[in-house]
Specification:
The protein has helices spanning 2-13, 27-39, 53-61, 73-81, 91-96, 111-122, 132-149, 160-173, 198-204, 208-215, 218-231, 265-268, 297-305, 327-337, 381-386, 392-395, 422-435, and strands spanning 18-23, 43-49, 67-69, 85-88, 102-105, 126-129, 153-155, 177-185, 255-256, 275-280, 282-283, 288-293, 313-318, 350-356, 374-380, 399-400, 415-416. It is of the alpha/beta class. It has three domains: 2-158 and 324-337, Rossmann fold (3-Layer(aba) Sandwich); 160-322, no CATH class; 350-435, Type Iii Antifreeze Protein Isoform Hplc 12. Helix 2 (27-39) runs parallel beside helix 3 (53-61). The two termini are 39 Å apart.
């Protein structure tokens, strides 16, 4: 967003930088911190919370900045008032503390993140997050809470859902009607797990389960679900269409993204609601794309002149997503322009449900996204409610009450929930607000 750099320069010149607190100091958190501290005038990273204090300290160590450990909100406020860089293990204390304008949440957790984000909203702070899992589970109710508090709740630039939304807005801005928002994947195998992805994860300093959640389709399901919830689009079917142009061979030549439009044309021609989906084995990867239409023959003529083809569908794409490099832009958009990158527009359109990755046995616990027990697939909320399907965002830490066969969707009746979770209460509140179903 070109306008953002000018606005940040003005804040820097005025000596009024945006004050940022960050929750999460893993792979992405360290990258975000480095970007703010080295490349973003008009913004200051003031505090970092992490469950293991050492990782929070390492964020500031990247620029040889001394940090001060604090254990309570009052200690954090006192340190911030002196200009000290703060580290803490108490995310809710950081979220509640005065002296911060925006909270960045980048934990990939559910319950832990929900507690912190709700605290930040209730204490009047904008929230920028990279947590598609949380947003795809309870994003609409968090957005509702943020609206009532007069703050922004948003996903971030740089990650694929935010890049898709930027493209969606661009297409609409030039008079094109978006009909499909798409994601480009290099691999999709629902049975990948932390062990199969361990070598790749270790090479890049990431967690094996997180990497497995990309490979098994859980992550892209959440990403496309939150794009659907931000645009009002749907999925064509459970799991999306997901045409594979690699023929199952990740090493095969990549197909230009423009050449994949035919896979979706029969469904788009039917004139139904807009779709979110993905393709495997296309280039540019890992990028995103938006398909749109224009009815005016004069505009079609211009688009053909500008090398976008004869229509009726036109493909707009971004060949990269730079994740943590672009998060500061999201912070500035929220704080300076009240402009969310991507946020639920109201009732959830699409959710992500849990599917058994193997034969599951009574008494097994579902441990994590990308784990050995389940993978997630996107489905329309009507089907999820009608079939009593279990959102995978709520499935984590649940225990099986009975056996479930491989590739079978889990239902609410299949699991025992942990006691007293905030996320379960917020999901019930969300369902009551948007569907009239108080049971969730």
């Amino acid at each position: 967003m070109i306008i953002v750099d000018t606005a940040l320069a003005r804040r820097e010149a005025a000596g009024k930088p945006i004050r940022v607190g960050m929750i999460g100091a893993g792979f992405q958190g360290k990258g975000i911190g480095l970007q703010i501290m080295t490349a973003t005038p008009g913004m200051r990273l003031c505090a970092v919370a992490n469950r293991h204090i050492g990782s929070a300290i390492e964020v500031f160590d990247q620029v040889s900045k001394v940090s001060r450990r604090c254990d309570t909100a009052s200690q954090i406020e006192a340190a911030l008032s002196k200009g000290d860089a703060v580290v803490t293990e108490d995310a809710t204390a950081l979220a509640a503390a005065n002296g911060l304008d925006v909270i960045i949440e980048v934990t990939g957790s559910i319950e832990y993140a929900a507690q912190a984000i709700l605290t930040a909203i209730d204490s009047g702070k904008h929230v920028v997050q990279m947590n598609a899992e949380l947003d795809g589970t309870i994003g609409p109710i968090l957005k509702d809470r943020a609206d009532k508090a007069g703050v922004i709740y948003t996903f971030s630039d740089g990650d694929q859902p935010g890049v898709q939304m930027n493209l969606y807005r661009f297409a609409r801005g030039v008079g094109v009607t978006p009909v499909l928002c798409g994601n480009i994947k290099g691999l999709h195998d629902p049975y990948r797990n932390p062990e199969t992805q361990r070598v790749f994860a270790e090479r890049w300093g990431q967690k094996p389960a997180m990497v497995a959640s990309f490979a098994d389709g859980t992550k892209i399901s959440f990403e496309q679900a939150i794009v659907a919830n931000g645009t009002g689009m749907r999925v064509l079917r459970r799991g999306m269409l997901g045409p594979d142009f690699s023929n199952g061979d990740p090493g095969s030549p990549l197909v230009p993204i423009e050449d994949t439009m035919g896979a979706f044309k029969p469904y788009l021609d039917s004139g139904g609601p807009g779709l979110v989906d993905y393709v495997v084995g296309a280039r540019p990867g890992p990028g995103v794309f938006v398909l749109g239409t224009v009815e005016d023959s004069r505009k079609q003529h211009y688009l053909e002149l500008y090398k976008l083809g004869k229509g009726p569908y036109y493909c707009f794409y971004t060949p990269y997503h730079l994740c943590h490099f672009e998060v500061p832009t999201s912070v500035a958009r929220a704080c300076l322009f009240d402009d969310p990158v991507l946020t639920p527009r109201g009732a959830p359109m699409v959710g992500v449900v849990a599917i058994a990755k193997k034969d599951l046995s009574e008494g097994e616990r579902i441990k994590e996204f990308g784990g050995f027990e389940v993978y997630g697939v996107a489905d329309n909320m009507e089907a999820i409610r009608n079939e009593n399907l279990l959102p995978v965002g709520l499935a984590i830490d649940c225990v099986l009450r009975r056996n479930v066969s491989k590739d079978t969707p889990l239902t609410w009746d299949d699991v025992q929930f942990p006691e007293g979770r905030l996320v379960d209460r917020l999901y019930r509140e969300q369902e009551q607000l948007f569907s009239g179903n108080p049971e969730g």
